[in-house]
């Protein structure tokens, strides 16, 4: 069975623990990148299939996230954090769709 993780600022992710998701607070971008590598490269019988990451942290470690875009697992999905929606999540969806199909079929750009 696959697991789901939430990575980001402490205040923005602890509510997800009540839903049974694994939460991993990142103290700074370097710590966040290390956590992402550990979660994404986890081998074993229960790997993480989905990693939600707060938009503000995702913006700071975008190069690290890009390393996993072509892999089937885990799906790394930006979510709004305590600072609100920055639009980074929609930009990531747009980038993934363009990469997959070769054009922007969602936003028509």
What does this structure look like?
- The structure is a single chain.
- The chain has 109 residues and is of the alpha/beta class.
- The protein has a single domain (3-101), classed as Rossmann fold (3-Layer(aba) Sandwich), CATH 3.40.50.10580.
- The chain is built from 5 helices and 4 strands, in the order E-H-E-H-E-H-H-E-H.
- The protein has helices at 10-13, 29-40, 55-60, 62-66, 88-101, and strands at 3-8, 22-25, 48-54, 75-79.
- It has a 4-stranded parallel beta sheet.
- The protein is globular.
- The termini are far apart.
- The mean pLDDT is 84.
SSE map:
Blueprint (H helix, E strand, L loop, with lengths): L2 E6 L1 H4 L8 E4 L3 H12 L7 E7 H6 L1 H5 L8 E5 L8 H14 L8
Summarize this entry quickly.
This protein is an alpha/beta fold and 109 residues long. It is 38% helix and 20% strand.
Largest beta sheet: strand ordering: 2-1-3-4
Backbone CA Rg: 14 Å
Task: Give the overall silhouette.
Answer: globular
Task: Write the H/E string, N to C.
Answer: EHEHEHHEH
Helical proportion, percent range: 25-40%
What structural class do you assign from the helix and strand content? alpha/beta
Mean pLDDT score, rounded? Answer: 84
- What name does CATH use for the topology? Rossmann fold
CATH-defined architecture: 3-Layer(aba) Sandwich
- Please tally the β strands and state the result: 4
Report the biggest beta sheet as strand number plus sense, adding barrel if it closes: 4 strands, parallel
Total count of helical runs of at least 4 residues: 5
Count of structural domains: 1
What is the CATH superfamily label?
Answer: ATPase, V1 complex, subunit F
Stretches with pLDDT under 50, minimum 5 residues: none
| CATH class type | Alpha Beta
């Amino acid at each position: 069975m696959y697991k789901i993780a939430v990575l980001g600022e402490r205040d923005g992710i602890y509510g997800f623990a009540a839903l049974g998701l694994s939460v991993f607070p990142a103290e700074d971008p370097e710590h966040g990148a290390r956590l992402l590598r550990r979660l994404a490269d986890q081998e074993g019988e229960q790997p993480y299939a989905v990693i939600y990451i707060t938009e503000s942290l995702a913006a700071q470690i975008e190069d690290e996230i890009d390393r996993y875009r072509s892999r089937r697992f885990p799906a790394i999905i930006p979510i709004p954090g305590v600072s609100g929606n920055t639009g980074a999540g929609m930009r990531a969806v747009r980038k993934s769709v363009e990469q997959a199909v070769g054009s922007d079929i969602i936003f028509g750009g």
